[in-house]
Design a protein that fits this description.
The structure holds 2 protein chains of 2 kinds. Chain A is of the alpha/beta class. Helix content of chain A is 33%, strand content 23%. Helices cover 77% and strands 0% of the residues of chain B. The chains are: A alpha/beta, B mainly alpha. The structure holds adenosine-5'-diphosphate and magnesium ion. Magnesium ion binds next to helix 1 of chain A.
Chain lengths: 331, 312
């Protein structure tokens, strides 16, 4: 594999709750090869956003902190880098799209100014030059009549259009890595499909690596090369998209598949996973999914490790990884 | 923007009518006959009837209302019962003093309060923030007559930098400014305390907004995030408070005017109360309402300049 553009090693990000620090992201590692898309999947509250914010160096302080691990972007270690150095990389080499298009744009600045800003800051362009380029980017994300809409404000845009503006802002400086944090979750289903299509298209054209965060496994197949499933701050399964879809191993991954809304099933059949993600200050020492797992058994009370199932396919479940041999026979 | 201005102007008309109606009602529902209150011990049936006729209280109520609204809107606020002079003349004579004091303390309050508030917000829960919060608490808890007398003792009597008596000649700018400094500082410091608090909390809430995170994710340097992204959004609540406070200031400058012996609206109100100058009070209320409506209008227009969403 080519040198990764982004590698995250043993990342641990903590929040302070009631005077003590608790990890929201616990020993998370993954790599992104150039041009590759890794989907990070998991229910809400599993630590997906915190993982992305850690990469960007935007963990809210003082209540949050990166307590350990390494993040390497194009050969540069990010953890511990002083703020001005991080500012030069954010928006230039790595960019992030957020989940809430309605609140993520500045209400008192024009769309054009917000898209042009990154180019003025990073590429030292004059306002004129930056605005000309911003117009081109708005056109590229397929905003109709961009020259007119350039001078409009966010409240004059629909949710889908705002998310296109967010994408334009993220792409403006041609970053090597795009962190897309549930970019379509807040949108209508038809708009979701359009924005996903746009992202896939732009990724091809610009050759960026994408960390695509979602809680919906259903959208993953269209866009991802590999999938990492996250639960309660840990990666519980990771592998190529085909392996995850054909042979999901971790009971949590399978539960996520069962929860995908499907056209050919009635809504009431939809198997939402019973129970809730344990809270940060009440993490069990053993398997974090055990309390909700239909296959919980002896051994689950011990800490679980990521073990190989297959080539490039790993899972954090002693039950799933113990039957590894059988799987090979079945193949 | 033009349409927005026209809309706000039109919207001010019903507001004005409503407050005028309120003034009319307040004056009429106050228990007791104003004529008896005015004449006091000297009240004879003839005297009361004559006064009713003079005040127009003998007319039917709807006629009184129509007259009152009509006269108020045409700028006729009546005459003082005590001096017989038109109220507008008396008010006009002191209004420049009141406006001087209001604007000057507003400037003092903003120039101190906005930067200190921003500074405190940017250093939340650190020494600077605690100091700013403590000072603004002190500024708010000292009554104006205490801080005013203190300032007067220090700067006028001890160091003799500024005059003690505040009756400035309006045609002499130097004299006017000289006598404005201490009262404006007194009232301005209270205003600064308010504005510091509002600016700090507005800034803190804006800094927690998603679009600030977006700006940081673009790699915008922190300084520029504060100036370009946060400040303008934080300005809305500050403008609101300043607008409200100007209204209070116009009425509440009484204490400052007394301490510094300045002419002004506040003193006229007190005088009219003492002398039971019923027509004067009604006229003052009307003028006060006009001023408030104008201040609100200016506040609304400022909103329009700050926030594009307001103009929709
Ligand atoms: N600013 C914060 N302060 C305290 N806890 C936080 C903060 N942000 C996130 N968390 C906690 O971290 C955990 C992971 O959150 P997040 O990464 O937002 O989940 P998601 O997978 O839905 O994106 C949650 O338990 C959440 O409560
Ligand atoms: Mg999230």
């Amino acid at each position: 594999m080519a040198d990764p553009v982004l590698s995250v090693e043993h990342l641990r990000t903590e929040f302070r709750i009631g005077g003590a620090w608790h990890p929201a992201v616990d020993d998370v590692s993954f790599v992104l090869a150039p041009g590759e898309t890794l989907a990070l999947v998991g229910e809400s509250g599993c630590g997906k956003s915190v993982t992305a914010l850690s990469v960007m160096g935007l963990v809210p302080s003082p209540q949050g902190r990166i307590a350990g691990g390494r993040i390497v972007l194009e050969g540069r270690a990010l953890v511990g880098l002083p703020e001005p150095a991080l500012e030069r990389l954010r928006g230039a080499r790595m960019a992030m799209i957020f989940q809430e298009p309605m609140t993520s744009l500045n209400p008192v600045m024009t769309i054009g100014a917000q898209v042009a800003e990154a180019m003025m800051v990073h590429q030292g362009l004059s306002r004129r030059q930056a605005e000309a380029k911003a117009l081109a980017v708005l056109d590229e994300v397929k905003i109709p009549s961009p020259a007119r809409r350039f001078h409009e404000y966010p409240h004059q845009f629909s949710g889908g259009m705002r998310q296109r503006v967010m994408i334009a802002m993220a792409l403006a400086c041609e970053p090597a890595v795009l962190l897309a944090d549930e970019p379509t979750t807040a949108l209508d289903v038809t708009i979701q499909a359009q924005v996903l299509g746009l992202l896939a298209d732009l990724k091809q054209r610009h050759g960026m690596a994408v960390l695509f965060i979602t809680h919906n496994l259903g959208v993953v197949a269209q866009i991802a090369d590999r999938v990492a499933v996250m639960y309660a701050g840990q990666i519980v399964e990771e592998g190529p998209v085909t392996a995850i879809f054909s042979r999901p191993a971790h009971p949590y991954t399978r539960a996520l598949f069962a929860a995908i809304p499907r056209m050919d099933r009635d809504a009431q059949d939809l198997a939402a996973i019973a129970g809730r993600v344990p809270s940060l200050d009440a993490m069990p020492t053993g398997c974090r999914f055990a309390s909700r797992c239909p296959q919980a058994q002896v051994g689950c009370e011990r800490p679980q490790v990521l073990a190989p199932l297959d080539e490039a396919h790993v899972a954090r479940c002693h039950v799933a990884t113990a039957v590894r041999g059988n799987w090979h026979q079945a193949d | 923007m033009i349409f927005y201005i026209i809309r706000r102007l039109l919207a001010a008309i019903p507001t004005l009518l409503a407050v005028l109606t309120l003034v009319f009602l307040i004056v009429r529902v106050v228990p007791g006959d104003p004529a008896i209150a005015i004449l006091g011990d000297r009240a004879t049936p003839d005297g009361i009837a004559a006064l009713h006729a003079k005040l127009g209280l003998d007319k039917p109520i709807w006629q009184q209302y129509v007259d009152f609204i009509g006269q108020s809107l045409s700028g006729d606020f009546g005459r003082s019962m005590v001096t017989g002079r038109p109220i507008l003349t008396d008010v006009g004579a002191v209004l420049p003093h009141t406006i001087d004091l209001t604007l000057a303390s507003l400037i003092v309050g903003t120039v101190i309060g906005v930067p200190v508030g921003i500074w405190a917000a940017l250093h939340r829960n650190r020494f600077i923030d605690y100091t700013a919060r403590l000072l603004s608490l002190i500024g708010l808890s000292f009554p104006v007559f205490v801080s005013g007398i203190f300032i007067l003792l220090l700067f006028a009597l001890h160091w003799r930098l500024f005059p003690v008596i505040g009756n400035a000649r309006l045609d002499d700018p130097v004299d006017r400014l000289d006598k404005l400094v201490l009262p404006a500082a007194t009232l301005g410091l209270v205003m600064a305390a308010y504005i510091t608090r509002v600016t700090r909390s507005a800034m803190l809430s804006v800094l927690g907004e998603d679009y600030i995170r977006t700006a940081r994710a673009k790699g915008v340097p922190w300084r520029r995030v504060v100036w370009r992204h946060a400040l303008r959004n934080a300005a809305m609540p500050v403008v609101t408070v300043v607008g409200l406070y100007i209204g209070i200031l116009i009425g509440n400058s009484v204490l400052t005017e007394i301490v510094f012996n300045r002419p002004g609206l506040g003193k006229i109100i007190v005088g009219a109360l003492n002398q039971r100058d019923y027509t004067m009070l009604q006229g003052l209320m009307v003028i006060y309402c006009f001023l408030i409506v104008v201040v609100n209008l200016i506040t609304d227009l400022t909103y329009g300049l700050i926030d594009p969403r307001v103009k929709q």
